[in-house]
Amino acid sequence: PVPVEWPAAFEPDHIACGPDGRVVALTSAGHAMVVPMGPATGRATQPVELQGLMELGLARGVAMARSGLLVLTGSGRLASCPLEGGACPALSTPPVPGPLGAVRAVA
Question: How far is 100 from 38, CA to CA, in rounded Å?
Answer without folding.
Answer: 35
